[in-house]
Design a protein that fits this description.
6-stranded mixed beta sheet; 10 helices; about 325 residues; Rossmann fold; disordered N terminus; about 45% helix; alpha/beta
Length: about 325
């Protein structure tokens, strides 16, 4: 079977001449059937080579424009998303969020819930900290388990009677310049990942200042205020608490640092300084270490902390 097709007239774009255009096309395209081709085959070939109606041409032009706009929007979305982990410019499927984004949201939510219940492996973290040349002590708050810790925040702010006795036995007549406490808080994952690397960045500056460091206390089910009791018992002039922050969507491992001058039981949060969202995707560890070192140095010099301490360090430059 072989088809021979002679060149015809170019299709017209004038809507009023559509009838004449089709007739002219049929007249000037001599289709010759050879070897018994069926009428259906003749119809298919004619349909494939027939000029496109103006309405179809307009639809194709609009589709191309929409596709180009979509590609441009996708490129813009990729650019913006490269600067943040926030959920922005989410793709849609009709009136709903795309399935992939919905599944990612559910996964992030599950990770955040799991982070709250993540077990605090104090022994492993203690070994990591001891490789830095620091002593460690394993303590517990008065909250005996995770459920109680979540239901009774006040119990997480004080040491258990047994840990209090152990701490008093460790205290000496020598005063410490700084007591460091690491707690699981609401994300043990954050403490496990970032506490030891952050201390490794801070330690050289403390040694350079000649500060006397108390053993690092690792407190299970502890809240921020437990640093006050520990600092008071040890007689430390400054206190630093590294604790897992409340997990957010996509950020289950955010670490917070709470600093206080003259830790005492019962003091309020207005006497603390906070450096939050310490994590590679948030506030980088090196930047956080610089901020913490600056604040502790100012506390040591001026003898105040919290709202009484004005942070005059340079602002962080946006990348």
């Amino acid at each position: 079977m072989r088809w021979e097709q002679n060149a015809g007239l170019a299709p017209s774009s004038n809507p009023e001449s559509s009838v004449e255009q089709n007739a002219s096309y049929a007249d000037h395209h001599n289709l010759r059937l050879e070897e018994g081709a069926s009428p259906a085959e003749v119809s298919d070939i004619f349909a494939a080579s027939a000029p496109m109606p103006d309405s179809a041409e307009r639809a194709r032009t609009e589709d191309n424009a929409i596709r180009a706009e979509s590609e441009e929007s996708s490129a813009l979305a990729r650019l913006w998303k490269s600067h943040t982990s926030a959920r922005i410019l989410l793709p849609r499927a009709g009136a709903s969020v795309a399935t992939s984004e919905r599944l990612d949201f559910q996964l992030s939510h599950a990770n955040a819930r799991d982070a709250v219940q993540w077990p605090f492996d104090r022994e492993t973290l203690a070994r990591e900290i001891e490789t830095l040349g620091l002593e460690t002590r394993l303590l517990s708050s008065d909250a005996p388990d995770r459920a109680t810790y979540l239901q009774r925040p006040d119990w997480g702010r004080r040491l258990s009677p047994r840990s209090r006795v152990e701490l008093e036995e460790m205290a000496t007549i020598e005063e410490f310049d700084l007591s460091v406490v690491v707690g699981d808080g609401l994300s043990a994952l954050a403490a496990m990942r970032h506490a030891a690397p952050l201390l490794a960045l801070l330690l050289p500056g403390w040694k350079e200042r000649g500060w006397r460091l108390a053993p690092v206390c690792l407190v299970a089910n502890g809240r921020v205020a437990v640093q006050d009791e520990i600092g008071q018992v040890l007689g430390a002039r400054l206190g630093l608490m590294l604790i897992g922050e409340r997990p957010g969507l996509g950020m289950p491992d955010s670490l917070g640092a709470y600093l206080v001058c003259g830790p005492q039981i019962g003091q309020t949060d207005e006497r603390r300084n906070c450096v939050s969202n310490i994590r590679p995707e948030g506030l980088p560890l090196a930047v956080a270490a610089g901020k913490i070192a600056y604040l502790l140095g100012e506390m040591n010099t001026k003898g105040v902390s919290g709202v009484a301490l004005k942070d005059e360090s340079p602002l962080l430059a946006l990348a």
